UniProtKB/TrEMBL annotation:
Keyword Transport: no
BP terms from Gene Ontology: cilium assembly; protein localization to ciliary transition zone
GO cellular component assignments: MKS complex
Protein name per Swiss-Prot or TrEMBL: Tectonic-1
The keyword Signal is assigned to this record: yes
UniProt biased composition (Polar residues): 121-136
Residue ranges occupied by any Tectonic-1-3 N-terminal domain in the UniProt entry: 2-102
Family: Belongs to the tectonic family.
InterPro entries to which the protein is assigned, alphabetical: TCTN1-3, TCTN1-3_dom, TCTN1-3_N
Source organism of the structure: Colius striatus
Length: 527
C-alpha cells in the first residue's frame, strides 16, 4: 500500500495536495492545504489489511507531511479472510465462438449446468476426483445427485427447445422442465431417452462418493392415448419398453416425475419415479417430454403450496401457529400448519338462512386476491348472558383456531419462521344499539382482515409477496334488553387485499431481459 497512489497523475511532477506522490518534496508538502487521499488501502473487502495513512502537521514550521502504516480491520460481517484463490484475482480471456470451435463450446457450456474445466462431467470415467477427498459425507443443497455411473438426469432444453440429457438433478432443488425429443417409428426401440429403463436403471448413491445405493422404484405408470386420454395402470412391476405395434410406436416415455425421500442429515433413503407413456404414429417426428423432481424429508408430510415463490390468485393463504416464543420456533419445530391448506385461514361462510347460530362451523377459505364479505344475523333476547354470547360471536367470526402467522410467499417453508408475517390484531368500538338501562355488554360484530401485498422481484415476472396482515375486531355496546324484547344484530366478516407496490418512477425503463434459464448452481455457494 505504500507504493499505491491514486492521485499521482502527473509524470515526474508533484500533484497538488497528493500526499502519497513520490515526486513531491518536503518543500512541496509545506505548501499543501490538505491531503486529497488521506488513507490508501488495497482490497476493501479484506477482513484485515495494511493501510497507509497520510496527514499534514499544520502546526509545524514549515508544515510537514505525516505518514504511517497501520493495521485496518474491516467491520463488515462478510469479508475475505485471505485471497488464496489466485485465479480470481484476474479475468481470463474468454474463448470466442467460431465456426471451428462452436460444437466444442456448445458441448462444454450448452447444458443447464457446466464446469469451467472441460471433461469434468465425463460420465464414463471411473477415476476418483482428488477434490472429493474433502467433501462431506452428505448431500448439501444444490449438489448434483450422484448415481452409480454419473448423476440423476433431468433432461432440459438448452440453446433451443431440444432435450439435453446433461442436466443433473440438484439435491433439494425442485425442478420442472419440458423439452422436445426427436423420434421416429423406425427407431422406436433404439432411442434410449424414450425408454423407462433409461431413467431407473442406475441406482442413486445414498450419500456422495459412497458404496451405499438406493434403487429407483416405479411409483406409477400412466398411459396416454393418441387423443390425450390418460389411464392409470394397476401394476407397476412390469417394465413397458417401446415397441412397434400396427405402425405405432407405443410405451414411449412422455413424462417422468422423480420423488426423493431424504433425512435431515442429507442422506437419500428412497427414490421413486412416476411415468407417463404414450404412442406416436409414423408421421410424428418429435415428442414433448416433461420432467420433474421433488423432495420430502423422512417422517414429514408434504404441504401443498400456493405459489412458487409468489402467491397465485385464487389459491388459499397459507397460515399457521407458533406454539413457542417466536425465537424458539426458529430453533425447534417452526410454524405448525393444518394439513388441509383450505382451512388454515378462513372466514364466516354465509348461509341461505342468514342465521348466525345455524352458520356456526361453516367456514370459507381466504383466497389470495379475492376480496370477500360474508355475514349473518343474530337474534338477541333478554335471557342471553353477556359472556357466553361474546364468546359465541368471537368463535363465529374467528373460527375455532385463528392462526398467528401468514406465509409471505406461496412456497414459504415452515422452518423459515422469519419468512412468515405475524397477524396484527386491532380492536375498535361502535355506538350503542339500545340504551334503556345502565347494564351493558360489549359484543364483537365484525371481523375485517386486510392483507397488504407487493410485487416482488423482476418487473417482467413479478411475484406476489405478503408484507402485512391485520385482523380488526369491531365491538358494539349492547344495553340490557327489557324482558320480552329482542334485537336483531348483523354480524359481518370481510377480507380486503391491498397492493402496496411502489409505482414505477416517471420515465423509468426496465432493464432488458433475455429468456434464459440459469444453471442451478449459478449462485453457489450462496442459496
Amino acid at each position: 500500500v505504500t507504493k499505491l497512489c491514486a492521485c499521482d497523475l502527473l509524470v515526474a511532477q508533484c500533484d497538488a495536495n497528493c500526499c502519497c506522490d513520490p515526486d513531491c518534496s518536503a518543500e512541496d508538502f509545506s505548501l499543501f492545504t490538505t491531503c486529497s487521499i488521506p488513507i490508501v488501502t488495497g482490497d476493501s473487502r479484506l477482513c484485515s489489511q495494511k493501510a497507509a495513512v497520510y496527514s499534514l502537521d499544520v502546526e509545524a514550521n514549515p508544515p510537514e507531511r505525516i505518514f504511517k502504516v497501520i493495521d485496518q480491520v474491516n467491520p463488515n460481517l462478510f469479508c475475505i479472510h485471505a485471497t488464496n484463490y489466485k485465479q480470481a484475482l484476474s479475468f481470463s480471456t474468454p474463448e470466442m465462438p467460431t465456426s471451428e470451435n462452436f460444437d466444442e463450446l456448445l458441448q462444454r457450456f450448452g447444458s443447464a449446468t457446466f464446469s469451467a474445466e472441460p471433461g469434468s462431467w465425463n460420465e464414463n470415467t471411473d477415476a476418483p476426483n482428488p477434490s472429493d477427498a474433502n467433501e462431506t459425507n452428505r448431500y448439501e443443497y444444490g449438489v448434483p445427485i450422484q448415481t452409480v455411473d454419473a448423476f440423476l438426469r433431468l433432461p432440459s432444453p438448452v440453446v433451443s427447445s431440444w432435450c439435453s440429457d446433461a442436466n443433473p438433478a440438484g439435491f433439494l432443488v425442485n425442478q420442472a422442465t419440458k423439452c422436445i425429443r426427436s423420434v421416429s417409428v423406425e427407431k422406436c426401440g433404439t432411442i434410449q431417452a424414450v425408454s423407462m429403463l433409461f431413467y431407473i436403471n442406475s441406482s442413486i448413491l445414498a450419500v456422495p462418493n459412497s458404496s451405499q445405493m438406493v434403487n429407483i422404484s416405479v411409483q406409477s405408470i400412466t398411459v396416454q392415448s393418441l387423443n390425450g386420454t390418460r389411464t392409470l395402470l394397476n401394476g407397476t412391476d412390469v417394465l413397458r419398453l417401446p415397441m412397434v405395434l400396427d405402425e405405432l410406436c407405443i410405451n414411449m416415455v412422455l413424462g417422468v416425475s422423480y420423488h426423493i425421500t431424504y433425512t435431515d442429515t442429507g442422506e437419500i433413503t428412497e427414490a421413486a419415479a412416476a411415468f407417463v407413456l404414450g404412442a406416436i404414429n409414423k408421421e410424428a417426428l418429435s415428442i414433448e417430454q416433461s420432467f420433474e423432481v421433488s423432495f420430502t424429508q423422512v417422517n414429514t408430510e408434504p404441504v401443498a403450496l400456493s405459489g412458487n415463490p409468489g402467491y397465485i390468485v385464487g389459491l388459499p393463504l397459507r397460515a399457521g401457529f407458533c406454539t413457542e416464543f417466536p425465537f424458539n420456533c426458529v430453533l425447534t419445530s417452526g410454524i405448525i400448519q393444518n394439513t388441509n391448506k383450505y382451512s388454515q385461514l378462513t372466514i364466516l361462510h354465509s348461509t341461505s338462512s342468514q342465521d348466525c347460530l345455524a352458520a356456526q362451523g361453516a367456514r370459507t377459505p381466504v383466497l389470495f386476491g379475492y376480496n370477500m364479505i360474508s355475514g349473518c344475523t343474530l337474534r338477541i333476547t333478554a335471557a342471553m348472558k353477556c359472556q357466553p354470547l361474546t364468546q359465541t360471536l368471537l368463535d363465529l367470526l374467528k373460527g375455532q383456531s385463528f392462526p398467528e402467522y401468514v406465509a409471505s410467499f406461496g412456497n414459504s417453508q415452515a422452518q423459515d419462521v422469519l419468512d412468515w408475517v405475524p397477524i396484527t390484531h386491532l380492536h375498535s368500538s361502535e355506538q350503542r344499539i339500545y340504551s334503556t338501562s345502565q347494564s351493558s355488554c360489549q359484543i364483537p360484530v365484525s371481523l375485517e382482515i386486510e392483507v397488504k401485498w407487493t410485487k416482488y422481484g423482476s418487473l417482467v415476472n413479478p411475484q406476489a409477496r405478503i408484507v402485512n396482515v391485520t385482523a380488526a375486531i369491531t365491538t358494539t355496546t349492547l344495553m340490557q334488553l327489557p324482558s320480552g324484547r329482542e334485537r336483531i344484530v348483523p354480524v359481518t366478516s370481510s377480507v380486503v387485499f391491498t397492493d402496496v407496490s411502489s409505482p414505477a418512477e416517471p420515465g423509468y425503463k426496465a432493464w432488458p431481459t433475455i429468456n434464459v434459464k440459469l444453471p442451478f448452481d449459478f449462485f453457489f455457494p450462496f442459496v
